[in-house]
Design brief:
The structure is a homotetramer.
Chain A lengths: L7 H4 L2 H4 L6 H4 L7 H30 L5 H28 L4 H11 L8 H10 L20 H12 L3 H11 L10 H22 L5 H20 L3 H9 L7 H12 L4 H35 L11 H10 L4 H4 L16 H6 L3 H4 L2
Chain lengths: ~375, ~375, ~375, ~375
């Protein structure tokens, strides 16, 4: 093979990729076999983070560019789908690290201090670009996460914090959804009635259920009052703003109603891809949570309840973030207001046509 | 084929198995296609629960029968391994139920009331036989879980509660572990020193880490005091009993020390299988947790924050049990006291011999 | 709980489900612990087969009923999606059976003779309803597969063979696809040119590639002649019929062209679901193959190259069926004729409109 | 953070790792979004290949160093276990590449020519170090695989071909297994009788099975004659050498008998780890096969039956290698000679002691 032709190794720049594993334990004069795994698995994570950012950036760009063209929705959905596949791999990848025993890990852990996964700027960017709110982050001490980063990385982190996130662009896009206001538009009323019927029906089932005791009944019935309240707030601007102000909601009322409409009428042709998109965002959220949870279990296996290598984030911290760092919670919370298919108000014919294919309705 | 010969269908009693799917929605005059899936997936779950109980019972029996014969340890490990494979399948199985939309589920949900997965007697038996403590269960209302069961099932549940659980038998078995008291047995002292060295070293790393602020340092250092305290209690009977009394520990001191010994010297031939056994119990615990967590996410997707079909256990309840219902926590907590391989005190030669193969040492 | 209320156990008919495990080894007076697993895993398989048939029947029904309504395409896609999830589980389920050692299996294998998985009528129905051609089946001896079935099962098998299969209904549906003949319809010409360009380009790359030797080049170039021939047959009725007659193709020319059109213009709104449907059928085929392959590996682990319990189908037979029993091969073979996105001929504006949403084009 | 302290990014050399993705399509002036994925996934593969080689080298080293110390067997088993976990990940990783459509792949495929995965020197090393025989490789053209490599890589490939492979070292190790020749050693005789009984029993079952026809019976019975022949060769040096010469066997007779002994008496303490080791080697073989198979399916989806980018190895080649490139086949073939647990000849007490723990037998 002549030197001018592209070779596999040159294309992948394997000279650099495969020459980037320097064991601290070797520098220290006492090679620990398992440190190689520790380096390589984290490099693999970072490669995948780069790919996630590549997809995320392109998605954000498409959302910015007056997005709504159908081909783009398809593309956004397929790229979110790729992110999801990568996330699943990242979770599975933990199994490989679990083949390292705690005793072997402790053999080189101290040599890494104060380096810490906490310092992965790519991971922070992913969180920020998805729309993690800085003030919702679980803190360690009084410091913000970016205090652990180098100057250059801190700048990049703040940059990604201040740019338009997927959450914000999604909110805009949802607010721009047509169809919500329609001429003879009274089916929101029918929907409201259907939800009320469902809630009352549920309450009655509880009330008449002799297999649970009075305390349990009372708790359940109270819970339903809360559900009813938040649901009524969906249609009442003042109440909704209160929920926003108190931090119970983050997504605007208009966007929330649009998302609800999409969830309810997901089977209409024009809403199928938007519905998949919403579902994917909830999936991405849950997979991030699963990854954190799996990661925290691993850290627990490795060092117990002690601290992490950066002098900072051990099992406890990771467990907390797994529980709290949800971004698209307002979307996933809509499940509470889903009603049985048969109770779904029929759409006005004219609207139904708007949501369909030209091929069927255009003639 | 003559009628006397065993056929596949007869062997598996498929006439009964495949004739046990009666749709409530059909009785109700309005077949809901997806109800079939709901029935079949739960029947598959119950079949696997039966298999888990089959393995669990045989394991408990072997533990009772003066167990320690080596062949049996191997058998116990392989049967626990089977339970683990089944648990993984049960978790994956959730993906199939996720293909049902909430709107379709709500179409037949009310018809099932007050039936509820809460009433699975086999699942309760599994929990009890593993060693779930009745008073540790998350309650719904003031009632115990068995109040939701039929008379006959309640009796079976209480029965399994009162029999020797795997937890109890494991405790006995650990307490019987030889090797802990040994003639010139002073390596527990070396081990104590090694842990202290490790903890002090960790504290120093925190103290000198300029990348975290003072508040964070203080929190971390306090955390280490707790670690040191509980670790000292391992070797101090009075302190340990206090931990037991306050509910911080459940496993006896003697059993805990034996488990720690096994974890530390897992590479010695005679300890390899016991170590796998301990690891498997922690895995079973974690997989139960994952299953509950995955299940609670599914319920949330299906009905949001509303209650479950039995008028009882919705997403919130399941999430709580996922967090609290740990059985072998004292075993998994030992990770905190693992030390680097190189700090591990050398075993006395005589003891090392005791832990080895006859083939090597017997001559 | 009063007896009239639906309980969990009654709903699932657990009295029957959990009372259908009769160990032959027990009858024989010598219980083999692992036989329980063998029974339960096969019962779980049969439960899932019932679910697959439930979905398949409903899909076939929708295809028959003049299908093309958009909501139904969505429903078909989601039910095929469910079948795929079930198939993945069936494959994973093999891991559980792998926890049984060959030595333990051989302990009760002979007691099962001549019962054999070969006799699963539900599995045969699945194959037939998908569209397996009876004369394409790998034979054991000179007999057809149905000779191993009971009279009643044989009738059911032949019945499913003779009913309209998914393959046939798909062919009809593809043939009915509109859009293929269009007024100024000359883009098939541009497509032909694009394929020719691609093939010639590939041939040139081979020709100029100095890293492979002459023999290899010759083989490759000949291969490309075959590709070119079959591709030309796509547009030439006589040639195509010859391919059909010789058994190289099964799907009609018209249906094949429609499928190709869908694959090429998958991004157009009205073609997105049809494209997913085609992809799913190929997935179902491949998952069936994977299942057979995984199954054959297991059988090999259990009994080596010996025969199966029914005196018939061992590892060799299963391996053969894994390789040959493909149903939707003509669909998957289309990959050869996919061209780069940028070479895709632009659709006439009028046609593009036909393929879009009313919402966009209808005004 | 001061510059002297180790940071996460420095430790992982992320400046190099994340700066090694140069899109050919960008050089070409027309960026193809999906090329990034193509690069990153292959880099991830190469990182994991490096890790596999790291483990493999250490295992080979341990085998060379007069290996038999028990601790090392444990270490070998845990490192093979890690390779297996990595292999599973490599297979799952294919799902991510499947999110790329063929149309997008074809957009940049030609730019990569003649680079080809065929040129991965690390993968060749893995094959060679495991023990792939050069003359068993599926050829493309008349050339050996190393003709596709650069001069430097070719040298490395030949080097790995000529060093002691895991297969060879395993053979040595098995041949050194003690216990096979034992004083009153007549249980091989009992074993032979047990196998003969099993084979005769199987033949009788076939002979009396009325549900299969005469042709099938004949084929089966002939098959059993082959089984009997090869099994007899196990104990007959001349016959065995003939099998070796004709290429039906690769592992020496002595090593094969030792492997069989280990498989049969796997429950004896001293044989448990050796048995896991043998099982793992078979697993590694099968996972390599699965990876090739999954890879060939992907290539088929991407380019159909056309050739690969290197002008060489398309779907057909990969499919062939998936079927033929088995290394530890002689080990997996032993399944044919496994007998029911209850037929296993009892070991002489003295030998049983040799295989047990000192703790039990040493006193």
């Amino acid at each position: 093979m002549t030197s001018k032709k592209l070779s596999y190794g040159d294309y992948l720049e394997l000279d650099k990729i495969l020459d980037s594993q320097t064991l601290q334990s070797k520098k220290n004069g006492n090679i620990v076999h398992d440190e190689m795994l520790f380096i390589i698995i984290h490099q693999a994570y970072e490669l995948w983070f780069k790919q996630i950012l590549h997809e995320l950036d392109s998605i954000i760009e498409m959302f910015k560019d007056n997005y709504v063209e159908e081909e783009n929705t398809g593309l956004v959905v397929s790229r979110l789908g790729r992110i999801i596949e990568i996330q699943k791999l990242l979770i599975d990848q933990v199994s490989i690290l679990e083949t390292m025993t705690p005793m072997d890990f402790l053999e080189f852990r101290d040599l890494l201090s104060p380096a810490s996964g906490f310092q992965s700027i790519q991971f922070r960017k992913i969180e920020n670009k998805l729309g993690m709110k800085p003030d919702k982050r679980v803190r360690f001490g009084k410091q913000r996460y970016d205090q652990y980063l180098s100057k250059q990385d801190r700048k990049a982190a703040l940059n990604s914090e201040n740019s338009a996130s997927l959450f914000m662009l999604l909110e805009d896009w949802l607010e721009r959804t047509p169809f919500l206001q329609f001429e003879e538009f009274n089916f929101w009323e029918s929907y409201k009635e259907a939800v009320e019927r469902m809630i009352n029906n549920d309450k009655e089932l509880i009330y008449n259920n002799n297999s649970i005791d009075d305390t349990a009944k009372e708790v359940s019935l109270k819970n339903y009052d809360v559900i009813k309240n938040t649901y009524e707030a969906l249609f009442d601007e003042k109440k909704y703003i209160k929920l926003l102000d108190e931090g119970h909601r983050r997504l605007s009322q208009k966007a929330t109603l649009a998302a609800l409409f999409i969830k309810l009428y997901r089977d209409e042709p024009v809403l199928q891809l938007p519905h998949r998109l919403l579902t994917q965002l909830v999936d991405i959220d849950q997979l991030l949570t699963s990854w954190r949870y799996r990661h925290s279990l691993l850290v627990f296996r490795m060092i117990g309840v002690k601290i992490g290598t950066g002098g900072s984030a051990g099992h406890g911290y990771l467990k907390k973030t797994a529980e709290k760092h949800s971004i698209f919670r307002d979307i996933s919370n809509l499940s509470t207001y889903i009603i049985p298919r048969s109770s779904l108000p029929k759409l006005p014919i004219k609207l139904k046509k708007e949501l369909g294919f030209f091929y069927v309705h255009g003639k």
